[in-house]
Batch of 4 targets.
Target 1
Amino acid sequence: MNLLHNKIFIIGGSVLIGIGIIAGSTFLISSRTQNYNTVKVERKDITEKIKATGKVEALDNVSLAFDKSGSVSHVNVKVGDSVNAGGTLGALSSDELYASLEGAQADLKAEQEKLGQLQSGSGNTSTELVTAQHKLYDSVQGGLTTADDSVRNKVDQFFTDPDTMNPKILFAFNDYDLKEKINGERLVVEETLTKWREMNTKLSLNSISNSDAEQARGYLTTIKNFLDDVSRAVNNFEPNNTLSQTTIDKYKSDVAAARANINATLSNITNAEESLRGTSASGSVQETRVSKAQAAVDAILSQINHTIIRAPFSGIVTKAEPKVGEYFAAGTPAFGIMTKDAFKVEIQIPEVDLAKISVGNKAAITLDAYGTGNVFDAHVSAIDPAETVTNGVGTYKATLLFDKADNKIYSGMTADAEVSTHISNQALVVPSRAIIRRGNDTFVLVQNGKEYLEKKITTGIMNTNADTEILSGLNEGDLIASFGNN
């Protein structure tokens, strides 16, 4: 009996608990349903924005130092002065450099005047050129006469038919190959003299050139080689019934004189050629001297420039350390300058937002000094490709430039920026608080009579007013549940 009583009690208790849970669930569902606010899906423009904070900085802010050490000769500015790009801020003493510059400029002027004389033909080189041309002309013309005399008068006396197609050296000597070589060379020499004679008939004092000299030296070399072989043959001549020792000695003497004359002629033509080449090149030599003198002037001017600090851009002087008369070491910060009306704000973009932002995006900046009522237009001018890690969080620096100058903006002010990264015009928009996310699914509750049905959706961008773009799943005018005020 007790056991049955206990079972009835347990069953009864379970039923009561179940009824209580059902009642409670019904109450919760009813309560949640009563708290729904119904909103309508609308079309309107929506802008995605990234918010960040930064500091106002001058667009350009540099510290300048002297490139060399020295005594300060003058300081032209003080802190707060406005300067134009290229303006002199200060300089070191450079009296010795200016003295050297005057000497170098005088040297340059002298070399330029010499070059002008050469180019106009009024300089000494004009006379030197004519003299060199005369010398080369005479040596080439006279060289033919010497060569002709050396062959016809001093060698042909022991040849038969020397100027025919079958010249032969007289007298026997113990070198058959040399004899045949000399006979062949005599034929070539005859052709050489003929060519030289033809060349000389075309030469004139004004047309003579180094190429003519080279041709004449080639003719002389052919004749010289012939005479060298003839000398070897004559030295092998032996006296006999038809050839006396006296005659042999005369042949030796004549050949030696011929060789000496040819060598002297070669030397004369070479010297005359070099003289003409040197005189002809004097113009280019003088141009080189002018270039060297100009380089010397430029080098001194460069040294003088290193004693002067000039403003790299127009702006405001933020530092002016040197004092006239004091010694200032190279590399020591001397002057500071920043842009006057151009300012920037650098902000850090989280990695998750990096893909959203691009150079050229518009931005709205407010400055703490003036409150949210004063908005300054700006744009993204640069995004650093390198990551900056702060407290273990990776961010990327973006630089914002103000669109126009404003005398309210000062370096160092705290700035709040909203960067507009994407705009969708006339998009379907719902309050972000109406969106429910469960796992990987996103949906809203769409009103259907007195009920609300789940509807899966695809979302786009979200603005700072807690509105979200709907890409798919809803239509304009649909009524959906919105939960609370946020």
Target 2
Amino acid sequence: MRILFVLPEFPFPPVSGGRVKVFNILRYLAPRHDCDVFCLGVADQTTLDGFKIAIPDIGSVEFFPHERVARNIFFVVAGILLRSAPPSITRCANRALARRLSELAATSRYDLIHYDIVNMVQYHQDRVASVHSPNDATSLVYARHSQASTSLFKRIRFSLLSKLLRRYEDRRYAAFTKVHVVSEADRSYLQVRTPTADISVIPISSGYTSELPTARNATREYEPPASSLTIAICGNLSDPSIARGFDRILTGVLPGIIARFPDIRVRVLGRVGLSRVQERMRSFPCIEYNDRVDSFEAFVAQAEVILVPDETGAPGPKTRVVQAMALGKTVLGSVNAFEGIPIQDGVHGKVYRSFEECLSGLTQLLSCQKTRRNLGMSAAKLAAREYALDIVGPKYEELYRQATEKFHKRSPPMLSG
């Protein structure tokens, strides 16, 4: 198949959940199909070279720089007033990309176009088979943020964004040949409102093959002494649901852990959006903060426990949780952190429902090497069975095949001459 990926950002380096998903899809498909990439933004030559080294079979890559800020502000306002489109969508409006896609759609160059996340829906071309991959039901995510927010302003803001997104999803999703989400909860939510949309569920991938996770876990025989125990906390800390959970970890959990383990190290990975969270981090000498790392694998390898404090958010599996499990790491997370992952609490990881449970669970895990090892081995087996690239990759391949077949069945070929 000839597949074009239309993306809101360049998927390399794969340092965020959205990038990881696309990067892994391309890793699997590029050796088997002709895959090209269009994306908003720019990339330096070093980054582009790294991408092509990581995926040597990738086809052409084209960049479309963001429009000028002044024009974006105009379109944000116009989009909200005239199209009920959320700001994030109108900010991604790009005339050059729209023209390029329209030209290509008329040439039958591609069998299918993949439009990633809701911001790319505006570029849909009805003359080519299409897959839209929002990952999550985006309006549902904002509705959850609204319900969980303690600030009246944030509740109103998230509620408005959720309504705008819901209208946008209702109007646009049925036009795609196929829609892809990562969890059954997302599919059910969208299907009720857009019954004519053809929605499939494919989970995210860890990026590892089904043979690797157990082998990686087995190679880690050395356990550092208790004095050098490390906790890793990862997530988009500019996301309000994650930021709030992390803030509560700093105030309600970490002081108790430091009292029990005075030499504990805490490594934090993620963008921090709130200044008060940054200030609180600086008050703990044991915290090492990273807004990004070159290798997530190397980052988690140095930790005994991966702590994921998401409070509300998308109902589907979280990329970093799946990756950590695939690497045989012990994951302690909130209920939302494991939502969509078929784990057994205490078998594949540990779930906390309060910050008292978080403190006690973290204390138990840091105190017992055997418990950590057993949880990590079970987590690696589950991740290999559910999220390995050689398990998930063929599901995407089948999704694209079904989309092209469906499109051609309902769209008779155009007569030439």
Target 3
Amino acid sequence: MQIPMQLPVWIRPAFWGAVFGATAITIVGFSWMGWTLGHTTTRLVAEARESAVVSALTPFCVSRYLKQPDSSKQLVLLRADTSEYTQRDIVEKAGFATIPGNSEPSSGLASACVKALRTASPSQ
């Protein structure tokens, strides 16, 4: 007959203390200390990269739009439409929001370009 092994009395409180401590530090770390998971960091870096490209290329988009042969007329037509989606579509279809090396226009660049064109003067 085997005698059952008895665990020391302190094991149970130590185990639960470790479980609650790990849970608490995880909650504090992700909530207040700025910890992130790998995919979150990757997403944030991609968003920052896209934002940097958009802010760098917006002046070129505006400049190209204003260098059209009939830019004053085109600017009036763009501003006449109140739908931001339609305005962005105009800039995208004209090719002013296509980032070099890409085949598709960037909707972020188109939106930034439209926002800048709303305040731009035709003589720029």
Target 4
Amino acid sequence: MKNQITFEDFAKLDIRIGQITSVEVVEDADKLLRFEFDFGSEKRQIIAGMRSFFSDLTTLKGKKLPVLCNIEPRTFRGQTSHGMIVAADDNGTPVFLQPEHDLPNGSIVK
């Protein structure tokens, strides 16, 4: 476990449910995927180093996932990421966390 944080630290996190509308390989990058997410009121591009874990990218389209939205943007290979997908780690393999029933895009995770 990591060091404890305060409730106020946790309250600073803006985690929302976003729906993947498209996903593609980032050119000239071995590990990167470019996701487009729909959050209801806005769309965002998110870059993630998950390429080696998914052989069929079409299976990702439509999934609704929690995304940390208020993390500082970061650029990878000329592509700016505006969020971070929240996933579990299974011995180095990402496992997506999905709502147990359909939620509107942009729903807040508390």
